[in-house]
UniProtKB/TrEMBL annotation:
GO terms for cellular component: adherens junction; bicellular tight junction; plasma membrane; protein-containing complex. One of its GO terms (molecular function) is cell-cell adhesion mediator activity. Residues 308-321, 337-351 have a biased composition (Polar residues). The keyword Transmembrane applies. It comes from the Eukaryota. It is a single-pass type I membrane protein. GO terms for biological process: bicellular tight junction assembly; homophilic cell adhesion via plasma membrane adhesion molecules; intracellular protein localization; regulation of actin filament polymerization. The keyword Phosphoprotein does not apply. Residues 1-29 form the signal peptide. This is Endothelial cell adhesion molecule. The gene is ESAM.
Length: 399
């Protein structure tokens, strides 16, 4: 029987022990993924680069100079109201990833940290890493995963400044400032630079909406106003020049005044036309209802006193008198006022009955002479009085 030298036997036993230990470790190994404590929520600025740290170990493994396992690594991004998105994978020794995404260390490696370059706001979300370990025989030895939260912050974009209102002495205006993009939402600050340095605070300043209220303006308030939009990762600003001028009547006020005056004049003209139309209508109706002033007066007849009786309708009904039977005493005197009137005299010599003159109205009925052919002069000496006989005009009115 042969015996081995002591040193050779010792080396052989050592090799056999290491081999058996390795097989036992592979059989008992369980992968466990790790992330730094307190770094489960990360923040980064848009445009920068960030690393999501992660590595795994095999639970129960004593030591290993090189990974003996077959590794599968996958990184996923989960966002609200969106489907799960795979951003990187390492399967069978091949890495595939989306743009701007890579592994920090070359594979195979137990450090599976993820690098994101040129960050954008849309890169925010929950990143989960999963590790699956197989042995050389293709048997799965375990699975492990961890999740990291990434929030990409956006500094304020350059804001825009606006003036609301007319900057006249004694008026009120509002200066507004808004940044179109900022995460988180920007806060605003208004100030004036030297030589009129001034910083504004509430209540004239609304730091959330970015508005500055200036009341009862004066010329001393003219100048440059600066608005600064800022959040925890950056700031931007804009400026506005305020020029306060004396109050003046603008073209709008002149137009309103002209419109009011034109309306008043138009109403006055309309009222004048209405009054003129009404006046002309009355003037046409009045001649038909009034007595004509230029109508010829009717002839008068002389009758004895107390012997005339008129009916209600204005016609001569009857005349009786005892004095009328007396014969005439003589010719009428030349100075008798009644002889000059256009009224015809009653005479016994006239064969035809005397008639009244023609008027605008219908012809009057002939009047019979008094019995005995007494003249007007005789009647006058007897004490008779003249009587006016009414007549009618074209309109039917009594004259």
């Amino acid at each position: 029987m042969m015996s081995l030298p002591g040193s050779s036997a010792s080396n052989l036993l050592r090799v056999l022990f290491l081999g058996l230990s390795t097989l036992a470790t592979a059989a008992r190994a369980q992968p466990e993924l790790h992330v730094p404590a307190g770094l489960t929520r990360l923040q980064a600025v848009e445009g920068a680069e960030v690393v999501l740290p992660a590595w795994y170990t095999l639970r129960g493994e004593v030591s290993s100079a090189q990974p003996w396992e077959v590794l599968t690594v996958q990184w996923f991004l989960k966002q609200e109201r969106k489907e799960l998105n795979q951003v990187l994978s390492y399967i069978g020794g091949t890495v595939s990833s989306q743009p701007r995404v890579s592994l920090v260390y070359s594979m195979p490696s137990r450090n599976v940290s993820l690098r994101l370059q040129g960050l954008q706001e849309k890169d925010s979300g929950s990143y989960s890493c999963s590790v699956n370990v197989q042995d050389s025989q293709g048997l799965s030895r375990g699975y492990s995963s961890k999740t990291l939260e990434l929030n990409v912050l956006v500094p304020p974009a350059p804001p825009s400044c606006h003036l609301l209102g007319a900057p006249h002495v004694g008026t009120n205006v509002t200066l507004s400032c808004q940044s179109p993009r900022s995460k988180p939402a920007a806060q605003y600050q208004w100030e004036r630079p030297p030589p009129s340095a001034q910083v504004f605070f509430a209540p004239v300043l609304d730091a959330i909406r970015g508005s500055l209220s200036l009341k009862n303006l004066s010329t001393s308030m003219s100048g440059v106003y600066i608005c600064k939009a800022h959040n925890e990762v950056g700031s931007a600003q804009c400026n506005l020049t305020l020029e306060v001028s004396a109050r003046s009547i603008g073209p709008g006020a002149s137009v309103v005044a002209g419109a009011v005056m034109g309306t008043l004049i138009g109403l006055g003209l309309l009222a004048g036309l209405v009054l003129l139309y009404q006046h002309r209508g009355k003037a046409v109706e009045e001649p038909a209802n009034n007595i004509k002033e230029d109508a010829t007066a009717p002839r008068t007849l002389l009758w004895p006193k107390g012997s005339d009786t008129l009916s209600k309708n204005g016609t001569l009904s009857s005349v009786t008198s005892a004095r009328a039977l007396r014969p005439p005493q003589g010719p009428p005197k030349p100075g008798n006022t009644y002889a000059s009137t256009p009224t015809p005299s009653l005479t016994s010599r006239a064969g035809s009955s005397p008639r009244l003159p023609w008027t605008d109205g219908p012809p009057s009925q002939p009047i019979s002479p008094s019995p005995g052919g007494i003249s007007s002069s005789a009647l006058s000496r007897m004490g008779a009085i003249p009587v006016m006989v009414p007549t009618q005009n074209h309109a039917g009115s009594l004259v």
